[in-house]
Amino acid sequence: MTAVLRAQALGKKYGRRWALRECTIDIPAGHIVGLVGPNGAGKSTLLKLACGQLEPTAGGIAVLGGRPGGTPAQLAKVGFVAQDTPVYASLTVAEHLRLGARLNPRWDDGMARERIARLGLVPAHRAGKLSGGQRAQLALTLGLAKRPDLLILDEPAAALDPLARHEFLQHLREAASEHKLSVVLSSHLVSDLEQVCDYLVVLVDSRVQIAGRTDHLLTTHHRLTGPRCDPGRLPADQYVVSARHTDRQSTFVVRAGAPTHDPAWTVSRVSLEDLVLAYMDQHTAEHRRVAQEVRG
Ligand SMILES: Nc1ncnc2c1ncn2[C@@H]1O[C@H](COP(=O)(O)OP(=O)(O)OP(=O)(O)O)[C@@H](O)[C@H]1O
């Protein structure tokens, strides 16, 4: 199956500083992918490279098998809603829809109009007069109505109220299953990702810490709680993702094919949020990197 996004040693420099470095990733089609990581990890940079808004400084990236933004056909297949929900302040809502229809060969006008009406947006209102959440809804409607094969969303729901967020995520899930849409969305709201994503990528310091189907990730990660000890004393097949210690107790989030049966340890399940926090844990990120490099 064609990867929706494949990057090999991808890097982007702004001036002399790397915003993204040595990023290697391979995301299969047919998923709603959650991209998560700390502020400044390089998520927006990766998404802008994926839609062709930025050119790589190093390495390569292919989206749906082609060069991002390389041809009109490629542009038609990829939708992008940037973090700052770009709309034209002086154009009305209706003019945005007309522009969308003119620029996008697969434009779904019925869906766009129905969604605008359902959201209570007035077609004659100028985008510059809309609230932040209404502007976000307009930008998301334009992205969905384009009927892309891949929709890239940079923090799409941040400005939406909880009900609007819920409705939008539901719409996204329906569009993904009805129209075979793949989605890559970045978000700091892990509860949103939990609701809608079936594939997760954690990016820390521009490196992919973990990527995979969420159901697989949740069955291969466990929390171990037991008497305080050094991570090196855990069985070799329990790869330590994060470690926390009190005077007497150690708690590890580990990745392993099967949980340990050592009675010294209490094994419990992790939630998606536990998993994300464990991989974002800066205390052990350096240790993980060294371990990965040794294994590689
Ligand atoms: N236009 C720019 N010029 C210079 N540096 C930039 C620019 N855009 C981003 N950066 C830097 O690149 C790094 C990665 O930024 P990026 O916006 O990709 O991170 P992010 O993971 O999306 O962060 P956030 O979660 O805060 O949105 C940061 O150190 C940022 O300061």
DSSP strand count: 13
Counting helices, strands and paired strands, the structural category is alpha/beta
Strand order of the largest sheet: 5-6-7-3-8-9
Give the termini separation. 25 Å
Low-confidence stretches: none
Largest sheet: 6 strands, mixed
Shape: elongated
CATH fold field value of the largest domain: Rossmann fold
CATH architecture of the largest domain: 3-Layer(aba) Sandwich
With helices defined by DSSP (H or I, 4 residues minimum), what is the helix count? 10
CATH class of the largest domain: Alpha Beta
The residue fraction in helices comes out at 25-40%
Mean pLDDT: 88
Report what the structure shows.
Keywords: ATP-binding, Nucleotide-binding, Transport. One of its GO terms (molecular function) is ATP binding. It is a single chain. The chain is built from 10 helices and 13 strands. With 296 residues, it is an alpha/beta fold. The strands form 3 sheets. Strands 5-6-7-3-8-9 form a 6-stranded mixed beta sheet, sandwiched between helices. Strands 11-12-10-13 form a 4-stranded antiparallel beta sheet. The protein has a 3-stranded antiparallel beta sheet with strand order 2-1-4, with helices on one face. Helix 4 packs antiparallel against helix 5. The two termini are 25 Å apart. The structure holds adenosine-5'-triphosphate. The site of adenosine-5'-triphosphate (ATP) has 10 residues, from helix 1.
